């Protein structure tokens, strides 16, 4: 009996220890969060390279916490379909221009016409306003404004013409369009054709369009300068490329994952801004060396030209958010943080 009792106690102790070990195992071997992502532009463009480098940074620092699986770019999900895909939870995270879904989140126009850097918008409360609008309207977090501070030019295959008041006249010009520019281009009397960036080279080659707007950097990589021989100065607007994350998927992440992703994205706001500014002069030199002619407005007309662009963006947003009614407070707050209105 004593032997049996002794064995029973040992068995009981072993069973208890095993149970404790099983209970403790999930706590000590917590699974990593997995995040799916896509990007709007092809991999060879600098903007996508920034995103992929940022993802690599998150994955390196997030070992054992969170890992992001990039499923591809526009070949995986069309660039204009990606925002809806993240909203609906088809993927968790998307790197995309805000203007691609501006009809759903009209507040994005504040970034388009911004007079501040991404870092300044974060410091003065603009970034928080932008995130709030995204959560309420589109079921996503707006985590950051990447590669900000890069502006746009119109590039043409024939010498630009100007109105009597010195402003660019695009009458008769077939201009590649997308949502970020449309309201402005209407004022310049352009004939527009909306298409993804991946289709523009072929459209230029076939004469479907004979002009396109693009950022200060990237034209040589796209090879559009094989057809476009004139650049119109000055610049207008800002890139509005951001990282958006499905709100339900975000809330399902661990606090550690959320903190890490947010911290890295904010770091890359500043890093990507500085990196891109260094490339503007280099790309301009490449285009000039390749024979592109830069045609400028006069200083006075250039200011009017820029103001036309900004006013078109703010007016579009004002109408969409009822800036004279229910959205008046939001409109005023965005003007204060992004346009520095008093």
From TrEMBL:
GO cellular component: periplasmic space
InterPro entries the record matches: DctP_fam, TRAP_DctP_sf
Annotated keywords: Periplasm, Signal
Main location: periplasm
Localization (cell): Periplasm
Pfam families according to UniProt: DctP
Range of residues in the leader sequence: 1-31
GO biological process: transmembrane transport
Keyword Signal in record: yes
Gene3D superfamilies, per the entry: Bacterial extracellular solute-binding protein, family 7
Name under which the protein is recorded: C4-dicarboxylate ABC transporter substrate-binding protein
Organism: Ruegeria sp. PrR005
